[in-house]
Amino acid sequence: MRVGVLGAGGRVGREVCRAVADAPDLELVAAVDPGMAGIDLRQVAGIDAPGLQVASTIDELVRAEAEVAVDFTVAPAALANLRWCAQHGVHAVVGTTGIPDEAVEELRGRFEQSSANCVLAANFAIGAALMTRFCELAAPFMDGVEIIELHHDGKRDAPSGTALQTAARVAAAREAAGLGWPPDPTEDLVLPGARGGRAPGGIRVHAVRLPGLVAHQEVVFGAVGQSLTIRHDAYDRSSFMPGVLLAVRQVASRPGLTLGLGPLLGF
């Protein structure tokens, strides 16, 4: 399968280039990053890719006859890239976060009308997908929940896409059980925002940004006399690569737009 990487010069993009190049059933045929255009990919990602230079525009995917594009850019660029992929019949695997819900629905319509498919996930770590699933299972049996997500200090969006997706899935599981959450008893906010932001279902989300972190999240459930904490830690961006490669291999067989890794893992 012929693969192009969008955002190839970024921290995750470089990892994707290396992972694709190392996979015996995949071929890295294009790398796109306007900030590094013209640079040999060996210098950018440290891989042996003779003659492969970083291109400046997504049109390189046509020249390279790429079948799948992997996008780890920023939200505005990713949205334009996905529209392009739907129009040009190139399957897309997307880990870029911060894309608004209304834009996701627009993309769903575009890929439903396209010969190409799309897998869009806020987090490609398989452990993170399992964390979300475990939280869904716990939601009907506990009396309250809050989410703390922790990321590196270069992350642009807050809260993370993983936190928002987790909150949405937990809220849906709670609602499906015919249950709500007790009201927040806080009456006096000494510091504005101290209780975090409200995600789907009114679930409180707290975002931490610090040097040295990569991607971490803990979901804390509470009930009378007990608590349950479900936590996932990604210590290195290589942890995302098994999920990315899984999506690359499956995207052609999943019509339209697929949200999250769960469907690829069977839940």
UniProtKB/TrEMBL annotation:
The keyword Endoplasmic reticulum does not apply. InterPro entries: DapB_C, DapB_N, DapB_N_CS, DHDPR_bac, NAD(P)-bd_dom_sf. The active site is at 151 (proton donor/acceptor), 155 (proton donor). Residues 1-124 form the Dihydrodipicolinate reductase N-terminal domain. Keywords: Amino-acid biosynthesis, Cytoplasm, Diaminopimelate biosynthesis, Lysine biosynthesis, NAD, NADP, Oxidoreductase. NAD(+) binds at residues 7-12, 33, 95-97, 121-124. It catalyses: (S)-2,3,4,5-tetrahydrodipicolinate + NAD(+) + H2O = (2S,4S)-4-hydroxy-2,3,4,5-tetrahydrodipicolinate + NADH + H(+); (S)-2,3,4,5-tetrahydrodipicolinate + NADP(+) + H2O = (2S,4S)-4-hydroxy-2,3,4,5-tetrahydrodipicolinate + NADPH + H(+). Coiled coil: none annotated. Signal peptide: none annotated. It holds the Pfam family DapB_N. It is found in: Cytoplasm. Its main location: cytoplasm. Catalyzes the conversion of 4-hydroxy-tetrahydrodipicolinate (HTPA) to tetrahydrodipicolinate. Belongs to the DapB family. This is 4-hydroxy-tetrahydrodipicolinate reductase. It comes from Aciditerrimonas ferrireducens.
